Amino acid sequence: MSTESRILCPALQQRVTTAEAAAAMIPAGANVGMSGFTGAGYPKAVPGALAERIKAHNAAGGKPFRINVLTGASTAPELDGKLAEVDGIEMRLPFQSDPICRERINNGTMNYADYHLSEVAQYAWSGFFGKMDIAIIEVVGIREDGSLIPSSSLGNNKTWIEQADKIILEVNHKQNARMEGMHDVYYGAALPPNRKPIMLTEPGQRIGELYLRCPIEKVVAVVETNAADRNTPFKKPDDASRKIAEHILEFFDREIKLGRLPKGLLPLQSGVGNIPNAVLEALDSGPYKNLTAYTEVIQDGMLKMLKSGTLAMASATAFSLSPEGIEEFDKDIEFYRQKILLRSQDISNHPEVARRLGVIATNGMIEADIYGNVNSTHVMGTRMMNGIGGSGDFARNGYLSIFMSPSTAKDGKISSIVPMVSHVDHTEHDVKIIVTEQGLADLRGLAPRQRALAIINNCAHPDFKDQLLDYFERACASGRGMHTPHLLNEALSWHERFEQIGTMKPNA
Ligand code: COA
To answer: Which of 96, 402, 410, 497 has most ligand 1 atoms within 8 Å of CB, for mutation?
Structure first.
């Protein structure tokens, strides 16, 4: 498809309009389902035009104009940032990582519901979010029959298109038109009791269609754009990330020798961020060949692994590439097209598939406690960072769930291993491995008190180790329940100390 002719459907050519005209079709209070996942494939023009409209409305002193924004996952300043800046979001779900949204969520001026990403579509089908008024979906192009060539993320697009009364399409000429053919849109999902097995037994299998179906009569506007996805550069792996990656690779080697992992490992799920990217880099320089990935997001590290042959193929729902990653992808898209499949997020993160394939899940965390409960989302128990994303989908259902973090945060003032987590996202029942730059604790087969010693001895920073051992020993000696010993009046005192004096260290 050439850049000039991305809208081939004659009826939809008639509906081409400006972002401002499209934004004028969105009423206050609307439930709006937007495309977008980890800064890829989100609408670039209509949300900004809507924010301008809201700003003018607010300046004129009208009743607050807010909408509810549902997406695949995080978007970018042009969407979340602009709408949050004008206080235009009443409710946001299911994931965000925008600094202005974060501020509003934490100062109580924006509602936010943080859901497992695999479950959002079924909630929408069940009507939990109310009627979907409008879908705003970025696409690469529109075919003659009105079907859509998806963009750099699929996320919840299929569901929003099905559920919405009206659809606004953004056709983005900046997205590489040769992405056509990389998508696998599954139309067999249903609510219980009508569910059928998802017939995926290998990460690379196709079970769906190349294009998004789209009822032409629902499309009220088509807006043409020419703007790049958010593309944050990756930091070079620092010392802590490199050590975390080394511990994980040593662990894989050991598991292979013990016959508990096959030589080609199992399909990899890798969270976003610098530590997961460092793990991918380390895997790429290891002895592995022909690995597979069944994950949410394709980062730069995965492109490199595909190129080197470490990875044979990757299934995901979105890209999340740096500027160099995008350049590399565009340069060699024919190669990557053979190796990458993008699916809807209810399939990329499907519990049934993650369990069947035996995914190895590697995700970041904010803190873990001595018994293996993990907090991925809340700083000091109350302040939302980003959200749970897909980490729960994979941690609960994968074969191995690995959680990683440097052992300290904020210049060493915070220990990421604490007596009790201040918020629980992943329980001790789901968390198998904890890794910091200090070492790795394999929790499988251990009872709670054994887990505590493994975590403290292997993962805690030396500045906090004695303090943790002292807590654990006194909890054991307290004469209370010995299954999971705690001193309830002290369990969250580390967080309280940080809030009061700016450090978790005892004698500061
Ligand atoms: N207490 C307070 N703050 C902490 C902390 C702790 N225990 N641990 C980390 N932080 C802060 C860091 O200081 C940093 O703050 P800054 O942005 O002000 O510098 C921030 O949290 C991010 O930490 P960082 O060490 O840079 O890690 P990261 O970028 O890898 O992010 C998570 C870690 C947990 C926030 C991130 O992995 C996440 O959002 N996870 C949940 C979603 C998920 O797992 N998605 C993947 C599924 S595909």
So the answer is: 410
What residue has token string 């209070």? 29
296 assigned to active site: yes
**Spatial contact of 279 and 248, defined as CB atoms under 8 Å apart:** yes
pLDDT, residue 233, reads: 76
Q: How would residue 4 be classed by pLDDT, with cut points 50, 70 and 90?
A: low
> Contact 360/291 with Cβ under 8 angstroms?
no
Q: Cβ(203)–Cβ(314) under 8 Å?
A: yes
SS3 264: coil
Q: What is the mean pLDDT of residues 434-442?
A: 98
Give yes or no for residue 3 having a pLDDT over 50. no
Q: Are 314 and 306 in contact (CB under 8 A)?
A: yes
CA distance 81 to 97: 10
212 DSSP 8-state letter: B
What are 433's strand-pairing partners?
402, 442
- pLDDT for 78 beyond 90: yes
Q: Which residues pair with 91 in a beta bridge?
A: 68, 111
Decide whether any atom of ligand 1 lies within 6 Å of the 345 Cβ. no
CA distance 144 to 148: 9
Q: How far is the CA of 366 from the centre of ligand 1 (A)?
A: 5
Question: Average pLDDT, stretch 216-236?
Answer: 91
Structure tokens at 86: 């004008």
Q: What is the C-alpha separation between 330 and 325, in angstroms, rounded?
A: 9
136/164 Cα distance (integer angstroms): 9
- pLDDT category, 273, cuts 50, 70, 90? confident
Report DSSP state, residue 376: S
Q: Enter the tokens of residue 342.
A: 């993008």
Pocket-testing residue among 375, 405, 431, 464, ligand 1, by greatest number of atoms within 8 A of Cβ:
405
Q: Is the CB of 409 under 6 A from ligand 1?
A: yes
Q: Identify the active-site residue in 296, 367, 428, 437.
A: 296
Per-residue pLDDT band for 62 (boundaries 50, 70, 90) equals confident
- Helix axis angle for 239-257 and 274-284, nearest 10°, is 50
Q: What's the whole-number mean pLDDT along residues 147-162?
A: 98
How many C-beta atoms lie closer than 10 Å to residue 358's C-beta?
16
Residue 41 assigned to a binding site: no
- Mean pLDDT across the chain: 96
In this structure, what are the phi and psi dihedrals at residue 224, rounded to the nearest 5 degrees? -95, 135
Share of the chain above pLDDT 70, in %: 99
d(CA 379, CA 402): 20
